[in-house]
Amino acid sequence: MSDANSRSIVSNQQGLHEKLDEIVNKHLTAEFKKPIAAHTQMAFDQVNEKVQAFAGPIILDSCCGVGESTANLAKRHPDALVIGIDKSSHRLDKHDIEYKQTDSGQYILVQADLNDFWRLAVAANWQPTHHYLLYPNPWPKAKHIQRRWHGAAIFPFIVKLGGLLEVRSNWDIYVKEFAQALQLTGQYCEVELFSSDTAITPFERKYWASSQQSHRLVIALL
Question: Following CA atoms 198, 204, 205, 208 in sequence, which dihedral angle do they give, to the nearest 10 degrees?
Fold first, then answer.
């Protein structure tokens, strides 16, 4: 499939999920008891050593895929340590081949389950200045609402991490649902169209080449 022929999102949802508020409110009041996976604990411990030793800003690039966005964010924030996290070793392994960028900025790529990594970061009192969620898997089928980050049990920990959160998707409903979930925590933001002269992720480049629009929210989490 060429970059200029990227498929649009197909969903049986025409608007916000009818059970979104119920699901989010349940997660905001429930305790997340799932045990931390050993491999993520080990990966976190290694990264945490570098975080604790670093004096500058910490930036998270969650669901970083091949890490192109992580490298680009490091260039944009040369005083920061940018941490790209993805669960797929297959995607991360492509980074050295295709996307290695070391001419400016500092970044780390780590393979980890974000359901565990985010909880560990909160427990370790990380205070990222920015948190990017760029084109996460939209899980567009209505029955998969709880696989979307805002509909998942981990959502309260995204809020607890704080920082300037930026979410981008080529599916407007995903970002609108995320904004609604944040509103249930007492935090309000607008969803807007986003465009730029330069795409910073492979998905962003593909979507724009096929004339799909990006939707985003940006909010300073309290």
Answer: -90
